[in-house]
Amino acid sequence: MSLFLIVALPFLGAMLPGLMNSAGRQACAGVTFTVTLLALIGLLTNLPAVLAGEIVTARVSWMPGLGLDVTFWLDGLGFFFAALILGIGLLIIAYARHYLAREDHMGEFFTYLLLFQGAMVGIVLSDNVLLLLIFWELTSLSSFLLIGYWKHLPEGRQGARMALAVTGMGGLAMIGGMLILGQIVGSYDLSVILQNRDAIQASPLYHPALVLILLGCFTKSAQFPFHFWLPHAMAAPTPVSAYLHSATMVKAGIFLLARLWPVLSGTPEWFVLVTGAGLITMVLGATIALFKHDLKALLAFSTVSHLGLITMLLGTGTAFGAMAAVFHILNHATFKAALFMSAGIIDHGVHTRDIRRLGGLRRLMPVTFVIATLAALSMAGIPFLNGFLSKEMMLEEAAHTTLFDLPWLVPALAVLGSLFSAAYCFRFVGHVFFGPVRDDYPGHPHDPGPGLWGPPALLVVLVVLIGVMPFLAEPFVKLVTAAVLGPAAAVPEAHLAIWHGVTPALYMSIVAVGGGFLAFAAHGPAQRLWDRTPRPEAKTLFDGVIAGIVGLARRTVAPLHDGAFSRYAAIFAVTVVAVGAHAGLTGASAAPSRAMQTPGVVQIAGWAMLVAAAGALVFLHRNRLLSLILIGIVGLMVTAGFVLFSAPDLAMTQLTVEVVTIILLLLALNFLPNRTPIESSAFRRARDGIIAVAGGLATMALSWHYLLRDTVAPSISEFHLANSYKGGGGTNVVNVILVDFRGFDTYGEIIVLSIAALLIFALTEALLAGPVRARLLNRLPDQPRAGGTHPMLMVIVTRVIMPVVMLVGFFVFLRGHNEPGGGFIAGLIVSIGFVMQYMASGFAWTSARLKYPYHGVIGAGVLTAGLTGIGSWFFGAPFLTSAFTYVRIPPFDEFELATAALFDLGVFLAVVGAVMLSLESFSRLARRQHGPEDDYPMGIDPSRDDLPRTTEIGA
Question: CB of 349 within 8 A of CB of 433?
């Protein structure tokens, strides 16, 4: 299966659980399970190639100019992590189906889970680091949704915010580090970066890149001092905790450390930073875990500790350390997922996770006891379980590692961390399952059905199988290790075995297990001492830092951003004018290369009208209706300017926009007072006037300067003129630019226009549903109203010209690719025809005959334009690339067929829908204001108006 499809399946499947929610819990879980299973099967189809040492690749050029291509690759390391993500994901889905309560929205949960799963698979299969960063941030966003899934819990919301803040901050740092790596190598492809170890480590940018990348990895994998967010993420549902802690989010940082190991490791800086952070995290996490009473909190800090162990192994920079890290990633995923699911089973049955309220459960929950005990003993490093094997390898590596010229430091800390790890594992088993059966359990302890204990049982089978027969896992572990080491080192000759003889690691392991048992025996006094000892709380420190940053931001921003737009505009205008004046007065410029043209009488008259209208607007703007008229004059004069400079497309667009805008603004002014009150002082008005004059003069000077001189760079107009017909199939350069060369801009513009119309509709709905509705119903006009609401002459004229308007719009639409016109102008022309019907015959009469859902018209337009652009992908061309051909259908002459016409159709529909939806929204307000509107489309009929009102209404 293609790597593209493997990555895309979870994202595509994320739409299904929500759609299947009404079909029941089983349907939601079933479709989620099926999507994940298909992705896993697709991954397994590439296993033979991976086992043969091949690298499976897939590439699509996206933005080659930016170095951003959609490239995926699958080697041993990528396969290992993708298999963990999808394989354990299957077990989590099956577990969650039976764990979540009936009131939990199953479709929403599985949608978030698939989004998160897809982002994780994208990380481990990405070849391009920029693409990897996109998936990296998607994991932060989707994990935020998963951790905060139980929105009714304050700790869930806070844990989600904390995780997003910490991992998001680290992600920003890592973006910088990855960009530096790409800059050093000259490529953003990981496959290229991993071949340039010497160039990267010799670069002066190696150290900042290393620090920034480690910040991203440490925050994602909860390494000291960023370890505090992970335990607070336990407020999520247990299936989320099991997934995040065992195989996904917290392993993302570990994955990236392993992926970049060939080029970043082997330097003193890497060794000190990574090994040091790992050791501190390992010991600190294990110590805190021993004194936690919440089962999930204990397991969360144990995850922190074991992530520190893996980080330390990768930090040593040796091939054996990397091999031990790979093996422990596998083992940790199996026993940790099983332990979290066991904790969920206990919580599900006993209704508490507080260890102090548990005990004696081995008799009441024997199946859960066996599963949890085996997984916990594996985590403690007891022989014949897989955790023992990787722990022995870790101790062996620690015994031969020297930090700060102290050969005893790393072994001592490794033993101390392992000791506390064994202690909290013994506590997990002893305080939960052993002891007498209690009579004060909050619930009724019992083993659940196989839907809950089945998934962790399968994982425990792997725990025992690998622990007893490690040679089964050895070939795959070495395959993954080879992918981690790359060309930097050879795979160690060491073998995975239960017995390696009497070695320092064996003595260290005996001390760790024996010391852990003694620490467990002394837990009571140690717990009391721990509770009395003052210590910094990471969450409190984090909250204090966030509060300080927010307070500083408020004190800084509040004086600058006070909501006064005039102030923002004044500061911006003064700054631009000052900088421009400095450049103009101190900089050098070429002599004019063009002569001034002599204006004619018509041009002078038009300029005078434009200046007069603009100047009058400044002094008469408090009269809203008069201001609107003056704005219309300015628009008409701009239209005349476009005509003068041979820009008919722009002139037609400007004219139609003016007509539609004036009508819509007139409707809006119907609900506002005729005059605007004076709100600013004389000083402020004088200040604003001076700034406006300075800005106008600066703009005039800049225009005059460039109009008399040739441009520094060649104009892009020459390219458009030369390629309009060859590349776009049209002789109207303006239209070809809109639908081809700059089609993506046009697509964005119609989306913005559509959003604006939808916002107008939403605001209208809010007004009609709120207290404003009563004011509209009771408001009396401030001016006398004309007697005839539907003048007969206007009704007849608009009815007669309506077909003509439609024909003109159709004609303008068809000719747009080769003559002035196009979808935007045609849409405005047709909209004007509809608007005239509303003006003449009234909203009720017209809307009864134009039964088009304007929301649907907008959606159809945006969808048509988007699908036209997507269609080019199927032919290997970039988004919105036009195609055209000429056909001849007798008896007609040869004519052109172009895909740009479909895009233009989308523009046409979006424009018509947006204008009509805005008009409909304002008209609904007007109808509510004036009361019921009669259905007669003509003017005054005295014989009808003399009838009793009840008769008229009932007619």
Answer: no
